[in-house]
Amino acid sequence: MPTLNGSYILRAFGSPTAVIDSKVHALLIEQQPPEKWVITPVPASDEGVVTIQTSDRSKAWTVPSEQEQELITVESLNSGSPAPNQIFRIVWPEPDADHLIQILTNSSGYSIGRNGIEDRSLLPKRIVSRPYGGEIPVWELRSA
Fold first, then answer.
1. Over the stretch 27-86, which tens digit does the pLDDT of each residue have?
2. Using CB atoms within 10 A of its CB, is residue 101 exposed (0-12), middle (13-18) or buried (19+)?
3. How many other β-carbons are positioned within 10 Å of the β-carbon of residue 130?
4. In this model, does residue 119 exceed pLDDT 90?
5. 75-92 in b/e burial notation, b at 16+ Cβ within 10 A?
6. Cβ(84)–Cβ(63) below 8 Å
7. CATH number at residue 129
8. What span, in angstroms and rounded, lies between the C-alpha atoms of 144 and 96?
9. Domain hosting residue 65, numbered range
10. In this structure, is residue 1 part of a structural domain?
11. Which of 20, 64, 79, 128 is least buried, going by the fewest C-beta atoms within 10 A?
């Protein structure tokens, strides 16, 4: 497993992600450029425990509550250090494919991804926390 530390384009079901109205969405068509997410290891944590920040490092992915189907938002870091709900765990489902990852909340272990059932429009799709059970979404990770 490689250590993640740098800028990346994250793709959910093949669609790049970006911030729209302070929430993380997958872009089915290019309404705007994808975000170049900065993935940073959390000091003194296990391997794969990270924050996912906007390219300017001013905000980070945040799970507003421990409820399922919560929209992933981007919020400011408290004094530069992440809150527990801003810490995620990266897992590699296939050891030989270092560009495929799974993202889980570090506290509850909920998976992060697009909904399994979505409308058929080309509007941006929500990125949410998904409860236990079912398939864990696989993300594509590319250096930005």
1. 999 889 999 999 999 998 898 999 999 999 999 999 988 776 789 999 998 777 899 999
2. buried
3. 22
4. no
5. eebeeeebeebbbbbbeb
6. no
7. 2.80.10.50
8. 21
9. 6-143
10. no
11. 79
